[in-house]
Fold Glutamate-1-semialdehyde 2,1-aminomutase.
Amino acid sequence: MTDMPNSRDRDLRRRAEAVIPGGMYGHQSVGLLPEDYPQYFASGEGAHLTDVDGRRYLDLMCAYGPNLFGYANPQIDAAYVRQLEKGDALTGPGPAMVELAEAFVAMVTHADWAMFCKNGTDATSMAMVTARAHTKRKTLVLAKGAYHGAAPWCTPRPTGTTAEDKANQVHCVYNDIASLEAAVAKAGDDIAAIFAAPFRHDAFIDQAAPDPAYARRARELADQTGALLVVDDVRGGLRVARDCSWSKLGVQPDLSTWGKCIANGHPISALLGNDKCRAAAASIYVTGSFWYAGAAMAASLETLKLVRETDYLERIEALGDKLRDGLAERAQAAGFGFRQTGPVTMPLFLFDDDRDLRKGFCWSSAMLERGVYVHPWHNMFLCAAMTEADIDAALDAAEGAFKVLKREAPTLGPVEKLAFLAG
Amino acid sequence: MTDMPNSRDRDLRRRAEAVIPGGMYGHQSVGLLPEDYPQYFASGEGAHLTDVDGRRYLDLMCAYGPNLFGYANPQIDAAYVRQLEKGDALTGPGPAMVELAEAFVAMVTHADWAMFCKNGTDATSMAMVTARAHTKRKTLVLAKGAYHGAAPWCTPRPTGTTAEDKANQVHCVYNDIASLEAAVAKAGDDIAAIFAAPFRHDAFIDQAAPDPAYARRARELADQTGALLVVDDVRGGLRVARDCSWSKLGVQPDLSTWGKCIANGHPISALLGNDKCRAAAASIYVTGSFWYAGAAMAASLETLKLVRETDYLERIEALGDKLRDGLAERAQAAGFGFRQTGPVTMPLFLFDDDRDLRKGFCWSSAMLERGVYVHPWHNMFLCAAMTEADIDAALDAAEGAFKVLKREAPTLGPVEKLAFLAG
């Protein structure tokens, strides 16, 4: 142990270097974050995280989405533990599986049925297989750069995958109707599905609300061609609506995929579908060792109860508005072009004229130092455990962070690890 | 509610018909089991299950593997709950991830590193991608009929998948050296990996121990061609050895995959590898929303502690021997050809002259009626919560069940739903 403020984090990273390839993997790696970001956390409570060196943060990442009602939410975790004591992974499911399917079908307009799995990628992969089984065709229409999971067919990094893994895919530009029409035309009579994120939430670029005309056109094209329309709500689900996110646009998909926060961080994801593709969903073989485990289902039932019975969404929207307005004001006062995009409940912040994110890194580090965990290039997530006081604290931190940035901006060097963004 | 003894199960199935495609999906569906098998369970404790209609069983399926130290094991579940209270899915991993990687590396001879995921299929898919990244080649050599998961590249039912999903695969016959050599030759200079189950544990057929010469030849061929050798220990792991299962043969793979019981039913799986393929594993993009959650890691640490510090394996082997010997004796006394295959800790029972399993179904139903849950065509699993008294009870039940079969055998009709087996 040293006297460095992050000595426990450094020590864990050193140990991990020995027993985990590259020291860390996947979306929670801090490899592409500023150097001072902690990799390891000791605990979470409500809207706050404590890292292994004892520093506490207001967490605007919410575990990359799973935290919707607060870390260690007593009501949801109690439901988990009660079911754990009765039985979790058994030789068959328990009543909670049926109750949870009923709860989703009652809540989500387009859904006539539900299937449960563990990863978001399980749900999107099942949507793909269901669409191919239903249509007896192969081609998927996807938006360029959209994230639908980390299996070989959809992973953003092709290393170790084959051309065949991504065969039968045609890409379009999100929100560009002509491009969508061209992609559907290119898929021709082999089209199985049109996949869509509820809004554009790609990393490193401004988020974009869905153009209602684009959403309606996707629905029309699916109907005309017999393809299934899939809305991938793994990331956006329950932070945009108490229904599939595109229901706000009056567009109902055939399939929707859910995960992350549907059990407030307990491991479960879901594929929901309508009657049109019920037989196809019943015909595919998908499974997992822990897919029928009851505890996460009990936690999801409790989460959906809070979704139905509380004003959580209106509250996080109001907090998100307050955060967005307050940041805009402070950025303007400091003289920065500061773009806030995405739903206010899932914001992403980017500075103007900041291709390699040197300003974003500097500002984010200054926020971190002031006790607010923000992400410089991935959308963030608000949760219902946040309070007005938390947002005030974030805004105070931001005022200080903009000052730091103003002072340091003229001398900031390039962010080597993000050099690819400038290329 | 009716007075039928399975009225709650029937009621749940009726409700599920409405909101789950086909009423149920995946490996825990009772669709291919005798009609009297319950689909829904209320609770599990130690080696016993209680179904939703209150009937209690000695459970020889152990949740299809996850139950190794008893359902609701107090020590393991307490570790889970302690970590849950501190933090489960957070914005980064906790120290438990490093500790668990260290524990696996210390326990498994071939392993220099570990990566954690949720499904067994995640681990086998990561093995495939790692092997392709390491070799910069594509072709996998797999044994015909071996189960390595339910993703499009490996699912046993092709509905909704494409020819491209299973491209770059060559098949051999398990334990047949000439067939393995031919498959490797066919893969030629494109070979990326040789996959192997630790023993042949395909459904519907006799299990088979690995021929040590086959295992050694697989290792040699991998070394000669530069391919990686993968042992898929998701199902067999920790019930054959306190190490990778092939370590008993003196054969060390490059990669091994683990899941099911490594946290005694809590949701976590793992890919372990050696230094040869560390860089490749670090180069791939794989992730999941709940992969870094601490509670299942804490439960796995406690499970591995019990693996290291108790005689669980010797005890379940002794119980397995007692069960196998006792069943053989009773089957012979009743005049049945009754084949018991696989490790004694993971047995499968098949009757001679029973192509559509009509004898197996009759006997299994009679066991179920006598309070012992057996599976007529899938390997079973013993757990450390079983006692000699449990095995005695199973043997008493078997004696009765053989009598029932003897009486009913002459008039048994075909099992329509297994007609495909006779084809």
Q: What stands out?
A: Residues 7-71+311-422 of chain B form a domain with the Aspartate Aminotransferase, domain 1 fold (CATH 3.90.1150.10). DSSP finds twelve helices and 13 strands in chain B. Chain B has two domains: 7-71+311-422, 89-292. Chain B touches chain A through 114 residues (CB under 8 Å).
